[in-house]
Design a protein that fits this description.
With about 400 residues, the protein is α/β, with parallel strands linked by helices. About 45% of the residues lie in helices and about 15% in strands. The chain has two domains: about 5-190 and about 360-389, Glycogen Phosphorylase B (Rossmann fold), CATH 3.40.50; about 210-355, Glycogen Phosphorylase B (Rossmann fold). Helix 8 (about 220-235) packs across helix 12. The model is unreliable at about 15-20 and about 380-389 (pLDDT under 50).
Length: about 400
C-alpha cells in the first residue's frame, strides 16, 4: 500500500452570491474524499476578513467609478495574504505533502510555501477572462493596463505551481495564454450525483416549466429571461420559477423562491423543470448548469465562459448570445413547442454529467494527480547515485 497522502485543502469559501461555486466545489471534494482512506486530508477556510482587510478594499472616491482605484490588485493581494497565512498555520500544525487551493487567488503569493509542500491551484476562471466579460459593467479601454500587476502575479503563480487544475478546457486555454510554461490538467470538481438526480417522470401536458437559479438576478440574465418569456407566460404556455435572494418584478406566471444551494426544495425544482435557463452575462463553469442536467432538465445557457463546453456546443443544451433578448425569446419559443427536443437535450445532458462530472470519479482523478505531483517532487529532490557517493 502507498504511504498516506498528506494533503491540505484550503477554500476561499463564500464571498457573496457571485462565487457560490467555489464553496460548492470545496464541499463536494471534502465529501467525496471520505471514500479515499489513503488520503490524510485536512480542510481549512480563510474565514471572514478582518477590519484592516476591509479598509484596504474600500472604494476610492473619484477613481472607483472609472476602475482606476486598483481594486482588483488590492482584492487579489489581500485574499492571497490571507491564504498564505492559513497555509503557514496549517503547516505549523502538521506537515503536508501537498496544499490544494480551491481558487488560485489564494495562491498568488504561495511561493514561500513551495519549500515545504507542493502547491496545486484549482482554477475556474483566470483574472483577465473574468473581468473582460463585463457582467458588472463594460470593461474600460485601460483595464488591461490597470490589471498589469494582477496578471503578473497570476502568471508567476501559474508557472511556479506544481500543478494547475483548470475546471474546463476553456479555462486551460486561457491559463496557457497567460503562462505558457504552466503544468495543467483539466479537472472539474464534479457533482454529488447521489443528491442531484432525476425525479419522477414529468407530465406531458400542461404549461412548460421554466427555472432560473441565480444570486445576481440581472447579471445572471434573470431579467432578460422574464422579458423574453413574457409571451409564453402571458398566454399560459409556460410558468417560471425564479430562485434568487434579490427582488423580482412581479409578472404573470412567475414564482419566486428564496433557497440555498443544495436545498432539498431546490433539487425538487430542478427535477420538475422542463427547461433550466441561465442566460448569464458572464460565468465560468456554473454548478447550477450541472445540477439541472443531473436532475433531468433540458438546459439553455449563454455563450460565456465554459458554458458552451458544458453544453457540448449545443448538443447537450441550447446556447444563446448573452444580453440578446430576441434570440432568447426565439430559443424559448422553440423549446416550448418541441417536447421531443427538450427530452433529447435532457437525456444527453444527463449522460454527459454522469460521464464527465461525477464527483466520485473526479475526486479519484484528483487524488491520482496529487500523488503524481508528490512523487515527481520527491523524485526531483532525491539525490543521484553520484551525489550520494
Amino acid at each position: 500500500m502507498p504511504d498516506p497522502l498528506r494533503a491540505v485543502f484550503i477554500s476561499q469559501g463564500k464571498l457573496g452570491t457571485s462565487v457560490l461555486g467555489l464553496a460548492m466545489a470545496a464541499a463536494t471534494t471534502e465529501a467525496a474524499l471520505a471514500e479515499h482512506p489513503g488520503v490524510d486530508a485536512r480542510f481549512a477556510g480563510i474565514g471572514e476578513r478582518g477590519r484592516a482587510m476591509r479598509v484596504a478594499l474600500r472604494p476610492v472616491p473619484g477613481l472607483s467609478p472609472l476602475d482606476l482605484d486598483l481594486y482588483g490588485l488590492r482584492f487579489h493581494l489581500t485574499e492571497s495574504l490571507r491564504g498564505l497565512g492559513v497555509m503557514r498555520e496549517e503547516l505549523r500544525r502538521a506537515p503536508a505533502d501537498v496544499v490544494h487551493l480551491t481558487t488560485h487567488t489564494l495562491g498568488l503569493l504561495s511561493g514561500p510555501i513551495r519549500r515545504r509542500a507542493a502547491i496545486v491551484l484549482s482554477v475556474d476562471v483566470p483574472i483577465w477572462e473574468w473581468g473582460a466579460m463585463g457582467h458588472f459593467r463594460p470593461p474600460r479601454p485601460w483595464r488591461r493596463a490597470v490589471l498589469a500587476g494582477d496578471l503578473a502575479l497570476e502568471r508567476r503563480a501559474f508557472e511556479r505551481a506544481d500543478l494547475v487544475l483548470p475546471w474546463s478546457a476553456w479555462a486551460r486555454d486561457a491559463i496557457l495564454r497567460t503562462a505558457p510554461r504552466a503544468r495543467t490538467q483539466v479537472l472539474h470538481p464534479g457533482l454529488d450525483l447521489a443528491r442531484f438526480s432525476p425525479g419522477p417522470p414529468r407530465p406531458a401536458d400542461g404549461p412548460v416549466r421554466l427555472l432560473f437559479v441565480g444570486g445576481r438576478l440581472e447579471a445572471k440574465g434573470g431579467l432578460d429571461l422574464i422579458e423574453a418569456a413574457r409571451p409564453l407566460l402571458d398566454d399560459g404556455r409556460a410558468e417560471l420559477d425564479v430562485v434568487t435572494p434579490e427582488e423580482v418584478p412581479p409578472a404573470p406566471g412567475v414564482r419566486v423562491h428564496r433557497l440555498g444551494s443544495g436545498d432539498d426544495e431546490l433539487i425538487g425544482l430542478y427535477q420538475r423543470a422542463d427547461v433550466f435557463c441561465l442566460p448569464s452575462w458572464g460565468d465560468a463553469s456554473p454548478f447550477v448548469v450541472l445540477e439541472a442536467m443531473a436532475c433531468g432538465a433540458a438546459v439553455l445557457g449563454s455563450a460565456v465562459g465554459a458554458v458552451p463546453e458544458m453544453l457540448e456546443d449545443g448538443a447537450a443544451g441550447v446556447v444563446v448570445a448573452p444580453r440578446d433578448v430576441a434570440g432568447l425569446r426565439a430559443a424559448l419559443e422553440g423549446l416550448a413547442g418541441d417536447p421531443g427536443r427538450r427530452r433529447a437535450l435532457a437525456e444527453r445532458g444527463l449522460a454527459l454529467v454522469r460521464e464527465r462530472y461525477d464527483a466520485r470519479t473526479q475526486t479519484a482523478a484528483l487524488v491520482a494527480a496529487l500523488r503524481e505531483v508528490v512523487a515527481r517532487r520527491r523524485g526531483a529532490t532525491a539525490p543521484t547515485s553520484a551525489s550520494a557517493a
